[in-house]
């Protein structure tokens, strides 16, 4: 009986110590996270201070914001164009001959788009070839890989 009581006491003390250890670990983890957040905030503040002291940094920020804005408007423009191109396909009330005409119309439209795509891809291929040929001529004419440093 005494042995059982001692054993229960040992288990109770172990669980108590384990709880204390877990609490310490949780507090330490929280403290480290707070320190890291504080350090990050300080680093960001330092970077902003250094960058704001640099001349023309305001112009850089404006340009960066403008680039972001252009990209966003580009996306919006693409979505707008796609919305204009995408027409609702209402075929519920159509008869068979109307459905055939609609299918032919869609087929012709797809053919036109594929043709435009092919033409543009060919144009791109030719332009790439021309650029490569011109670079080759420039390298040959310039002696190949001129670094811009002259003298001797």
From TrEMBL:
Keyword Coiled coil attached: yes
GO CC terms: troponin complex
Gene3D superfamilies, per database record: 1.20.5.350
Chain intervals for the UniProt region annotation (Disordered): 1-57
Keyword annotations of the record: Coiled coil, Muscle protein, Phosphoprotein
SUPFAM superfamilies tied to this protein: Troponin coil-coiled subunits
Molecular function, one GO term: tropomyosin binding
A biological process term (GO) from this entry: sarcomere organization
Composition skew (Basic and acidic residues), residue ranges: 1-46
Coiled-coil segments: 96-130
InterPro entries: TNNT, Troponin, Troponin_sf
Function: Troponin T is the tropomyosin-binding subunit of troponin, the thin filament regulatory complex which confers calcium-sensitivity to striated muscle actomyosin ATPase activity.
Family to which the UniProt record says this protein belongs: Belongs to the troponin T family.
Quaternary structure, from the entry: Interacts with TPM3.
PANTHER family given in the database record: TROPONIN T, TROPONIN T, SLOW SKELETAL MUSCLE
Name of the protein this chain belongs to: Troponin T, slow skeletal muscle
Organism: Meleagris gallopavo
